[in-house]
Structures are given as structure tokens and as C-alpha cells.
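Reviewers of the previous submission asked for a worked example of the structure-prediction workflow described in the proposal, so we include one complete record here. The input consisted solely of the amino acid sequence. No template or homolog information was supplied to the procedure at any stage.
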Amino acid sequence: MNLMPQAVKTLVDWSVATKPLAGQAVSGDVHLVKEFDGGVLIAVIDGVGHGAAAMFAAQLAAEILERHAEQPLVRLMELCHEALTLTRGAAVTLATIQASDNKLHWLSVGNVEARLVRAAPTADPASEGVVMRQGLVGGRLPALRAAEIELQLGDVLVVVTDGIHPDFVRSVAPRQKPKQIVQRVMQEHFKATDDALVLAIRYLGGDHE
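From that input alone, the workflow returned the following C-alpha cells.
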């Protein structure tokens, strides 16, 4: 398991854990956390299948996203779709956090799940999930509409590919560090039947130093 903690100044603290399917040298699950002027783009891409072909599709999408990180989410998904038409395609979940509005904007095509887990113990609901639209980036793209949700300091966004059991949110303790969160989710919810990736993003607020 690879653990790669990082930080994007002023907005988020994050960490990711990945595991390829047993017998595979590489994973088709790829992440991107890209700072741009006034915000940060968050992406998890699950290339269809396993191995090098899946990794190629996912990395191609990540390269497109990195080059155009400041664009609106719908446009980013369209750019990925155009780039992936001659590949296996991918499931993609995108999110942006803008320093100016304390909001999370998110959009998903396919089965990369994202949940925002609230830091406040009295929050109701305690977590909220992105709408996962059916389709395939590079194959059949559904009608796209990004949603937004208010953020509070300390809220944690957790994004997982389908190599993680869908009940993973019960293992997310928002007061833990992102590295601890991804390690625990991977250890407790890895299916061992697919590549897997867990990305945890803690919101620090636009004024954090």
C-alpha cells in the first residue's frame, strides 16, 4: 500500500492510499489534487479494467485535468470524455473548493464514490454523498450538472474507487489526520477483487496559514 500525504496551502490537507489488484504491477486508479489561483481541484479516476490499459486511460484524464484545473467541472468532464474516446474509458469524480465561497462543488460519472463527512459531532446529516451519474467517460456521457455544498472547517471529503466496500464511511473519523483516515479505510474495506484508491481531503479554510 502506498501512502502519500501532501498539503495544498490555505485550503486543504490531504492523503491518499492505493492498492493494485493482486497480480497486477500497476493500478488503474489515479488521483489528482491540483492547486490553482483561488482554489483546488480534486479528482479520482478509475480506468476501466486493470493493468496498463486502465492506468493509461486514468493517467490521460489526470493530465487533461492538471492542464485545465481552473475550468468549471462540467467542462473538465467534457474534456476528459473527448480525450478518452479511444481508450477503455473511466469512471471519474471531480470536486473543487474555492477559497472565496467556502463551498464544495462536485460532479461524478460512474462509480467513484465521494462522501463529505462533517467535522461537527452534532451535524445532521453526519455525511453527504455525491450523485453518481450512470455513464462512462470516454464512452457514454450523461447529462452533466455539478452540485454544491457548504463547507465547515474540518469537514473531510473522502473519495474511493469501487475496490473499496461502500460502507467505508463508518470507518471515517473526521478528527483524525487524512493519512490515518485513508490507512484505516484501506485496511478495513479493501475488497481484494479490484484496484483500490482512497483519497481524504480535510478542509482548512481559505484563511489557514
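Confidence is low (pLDDT under 50) at residues 4-8. We consider this example representative of the routine output the project will generate in years two and three.
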